[in-house]
Write a structure and sequence with these properties.
This protein is an alpha/beta fold. It contains 10 helices and 10 strands. α1 packs parallel to α2, α3 crosses α4 and α7 packs across α8. The chain starts with 6 loop residues before the first strand and ends in a 26-residue tail after the last helix.
């Protein structure tokens, strides 16, 4: 089987490639790099492309996808493209216009997956992180169930083939799953997940509900000052991962990615480095032993790289719950 076709079935009958290419880059990285890296990733065999309104590079990523369609590398239906609804658009009447804005930037007719980026509504407007004069986040009050109904309408209209969520805890997921008149279940929950934060309880919960867990920051995290706690240890320097990597003659990054695939987690690999983009495709070329898996499970310390303390006063802040 062509490794590029390795997919998991979603609860709506569609299929998601288990290895995805993450496109986020910090502001100081020129947008043209998103274009080049995404083109290269598609050429290297990536078919699942993960992006978002917040990343402000959908224009370039869309251009990359269209250029790889134009040169015959792929057809549109070979690509699985994810976009995300940002927190300032969670009011139901803002959901479809936000998706339409992404589609316009991408110059695509539909996204394969549209997900709610965070379960925390913020004041609508141009500013993605609205603050008051004291620098405090300005929240909005939105019932996420009404946001979800607007997401369902986007799916029914064919603008998004599948719909899901991101950064939801199990209670927030439950709220949507138990919503009266639920038409479409979330197909996925995209969360930070790696050997230091393996999300085993959330993974079990999602599996029990037929929801796929998608892992971001699967390699630890890019060392981004604004979003990441830089005092934390670097995952890929972990001696145990290093030892397992040596044994399999692979890199620690490949071990961290393979670990997720063998747990049934869809994994995103983020790199703009061509050598590493190519190397990440080798995740299908080897297997970890049950002993390896158990040893990596033992690394868990519920350690979150994404620093979200700025949002912790939000009434819907998701990370106060155990999972």
């Amino acid at each position: 089987m062509d490794p590029r076709r390795q997919c998991q079935e979603l609860n709506d009958g569609r299929f998601i490639p288990v290895l995805g290419f993450g496109t986020y880059a910090p502001e100081e990285v020129p947008k043209s790099e998103a274009l080049e890296a995404t083109k290269f990733a598609i050429g290297a065999g990536f078919r699942h492309i993960d992006c978002a309104y917040l990343y402000q590079n959908e224009e370039q990523v869309g251009q990359a996808i269209r250029s790889k369609i134009a040169d015959g590398t792929v057809k549109r239906e070979d690509i699985f493209y994810t976009s995300k609804l940002w927190c300032t658009f969670l009011r139901p009447e803002l959901v479809r216009p936000a998706l339409e804005k992404s589609l316009k930037d991408l110059q695509l007719d539909y996204v394969d997956l549209y997900i709610i980026h965070f379960p925390m509504a913020m004041k609508p407007g141009e500013d993605p992180l609205p603050k008051d004069e004291n620098g405090k986040l300005i929240c909005d009050t939105v019932d996420l169930c009404s946001t979800w109904e607007a997401m369902e309408k986007c799916k029914d209209a064919g603008l998004a083939k599948s719909i899901g969520v991101s950064n939801f805890n199990h209670k927030q997921l439950g709220k949507i799953l138990n919503k009266p008149g639920l038409k479409h279940k979330p197909v996925c929950n995209q969360v930070e997940c790696h050997p230091y934060m393996n999300q085993s309880k959330l993974l079990d919960f999602c599996k029990s509900k037929g929801i796929v867990l998608v892992a971001y920051s699967a390699l630890g995290s890019q060392r981004l000052e604004n979003w990441v706690n830089l005092r934390l240890p670097v995952l890929l320097d972990d001696p145990l991962l290093g030892a397992i990597a040596k044994k399999h003659k692979r890199s620690p990054a490949l071990i961290a990615l393979r670990y997720q695939l063998q747990r049934g987690v869809v994994v995103l690999a983020k790199s703009y480095n061509k050598k590493r983009i190519k190397e990440n495709m080798q995740v299908f070329d080897f297997e970890l032993t049950p002993e390896d898996m158990k040893a990596i499970d033992g690394l868990n310390r519920n350690m979150r790289y994404l620093d979200t303390t700025y949002f912790s006063d939000h009434p819907d802040y998701p990370f106060s719950e155990e999972y």
